[in-house]
Design goal:
Elements: E1 2-6, H1 16-30, E2 34-39, E3 51-55, H2 73-90, E4 95-99, H3 102-113, E5 116-121, H4 125-131, H5 138-154, E6 157-160, H6 163-170, E7 178-180, H7 195-204, E8 212-216, H8 225-238, E9 243-247, H9 251-263, E10 270-274, H10 281-287, E11 290-293, H11 304-311, E12 315-318, H12 321-324, E13 333-335, H13 339-351, H14 353-370, H15 373-395
Parallel strand pairs: 1-2, 1-4, 2-3, 4-5, 5-6, 6-7, 8-9, 8-11, 9-10, 11-12, 12-13
InterPro entries: Glyco_trans_1, Glyco_trans_4-like_N
GO molecular function: glycosyltransferase activity; hydrolase activity
Domain Glycosyltransferase subfamily 4-like N-terminal: 20-183
């Protein structure tokens, strides 16, 4: 099939949704399909045989897009719509695949061009607006809820990325076929780092020989980084040679959190190193004694958890629903979403390295069975075969 995919994201960027889109595209290409992707002008080049990227024109002054809803998305999404419309006018596609808010574009374009529409539901858009603190206006939130219901009801198929999103989608429709494929694909072809590479990073970051606790991902408010920083003084008292390494985030976020760390007297124990390429992530994972996910709210499963599990390192995570959809007491240490909970959890794991090692080993085995590329591709193939069969029926 020749697929038009619409993704209102900076592609490619080292964060959740673009990673997920990349792996879904890769799966489609493995099945023999071709993909034309309409996306933002922002992002690193991606070269995959069978993928053609059509970027919107550059908008002066917009060089990055924050995670979640923002004012910058309005002009960007408008241009995405017109580029997708242009592609449909000049090229014959078998179907459309859309991500996030582009589902609304898919509904309209499907109606105009008579193409079947598969919607990847990465989140409940109305909940995303609330959790990102974009607005508290009840009228706007209600309007977004109505748009989300329209997308779910009018799409010809839906891929939900976690149990909570699947349940939300099923609560909106009884007719649209809904499948769940976790965003669990990880790039298993990345080479394992050498001991020299890991030691080099330790030296570059001046980490000494003490334990390292690693966080990777965005620094949005719902990720709980404020809670994490509040927890560090208690851990620092017990383990004065400890270091926290935080990978990810934008400059303004890092500056705010650095100020907070100074106020709590733990700035010297934290390394904010910003965003890093995917290829470098195995080195940081190998560096860590404990992997952190201090998320404070939301119901979407953080993409980082699948990578964490595959690493075989012990995981310290807050016990909220977004995380317990994937993690259990057998694969991670789950603690209350508080500074005290995170501090006590870190101390407990550091004091009992054998238990920590066992948790990491359990996590790796669980990931290999449930969240491997093989499993992801198998689920994706099943969904696409069903969707293709529906296309053939419609054509007949």
């Amino acid at each position: 099939m020749k697929i038009l995919m619409i993704a209102p994201q900076p592609f490619m960027e080292e964060r959740g949704a673009p990673f997920a889109i990349y792996h879904h595209i890769k799966a489609l290409l493995c099945m023999g399909h071709t993909v034309d992707l309409v996306t933002y002008h922002i992002g690193k080049p991606v070269e995959l045989p069978g993928l053609h990227i059509f970027r919107i024109p550059t908008i002066p002054g917009i060089h990055q897009v924050k995670v979640g809803p923002s004012m910058a998305k309005f002009p960007l999404d408008l241009l995405v719509f017109f580029v997708a419309l242009w592609r449909l006018c000049i090229t014959r596609y078998d179907c459309m695949h859309t991500h996030e808010e582009a589902g609304a574009m898919g509904v309209l374009l499907s109606l105009i061009f008579g193409r079947k529409h598969l919607y990847y539901m990465h989140s409940d858009l109305s909940q995303q607006i609330v959790s990102s603190e974009f607005t508290k206006n009840p009228f706007i939130i209600h309007c977004v809820k109505l748009i989300q219901k329209l997308i779910v009801r009018k799409a010809h198929g839906i891929i939900a990325i976690c149990p909570d999103i699947e349940r939300t989608a099923r609560g909106m429709t009884s007719k649209t076929p809904i499948h769940m494929i976790e965003n669990s694909a990880v790039d298993e072809n990345l080479p394992a780092p050498t001991m020299e590479e890991v030691l080099q990073i330790r030296e570059e970051l001046a980490l000494g020989t003490g334990p390292v606790l690693l966080y990777t991902g965005t620094l949005e408010s719902y990720q709980g980084i404020d809670l994490l920083i509040h927890s560090i003084p208690a851990v620092y008292k017990v383990f004065p040679d400890i270091h926290y390494v935080l990978v990810g985030g934008q400059t303004a976020q890092i500056e705010r959190l650095s100020t907070m760390a100074k106020e709590f007297g733990v700035y010297d124990a934290i390394r904010f190193i910003g965003q890093k390429p995917l290829a470098e992530m195995p080195r940081y994972m190998a560096l860590a004694d404990i992997l952190l996910s201090p998320r404070s709210k939301g119901t979407n499963t953080p993409l980082k958890l699948y990578t964490y599990l595959h690493s075989g390192k012990p995981i310290l995570a807050t016990e909220i629903y977004s995380q317990t959809q994937v993690l259990s007491s057998e694969t991670a240490l789950l603690v209350p979403p508080t500074a005290d909970g995170l501090a006590e959890g870190a101390i407990a794991l550091l004091r009992n390295p054998q238990w920590a090692k066992a948790l990491g080993g359990n996590g790796r085995l669980f990931a290999e069975e449930h969240y491997s590329w093989r499993v992801f591709l198998k689920k994706s193939t099943y969904v696409q075969e069903e969707f293709s069969a529906d296309l053939l029926e419609m054509a007949a």
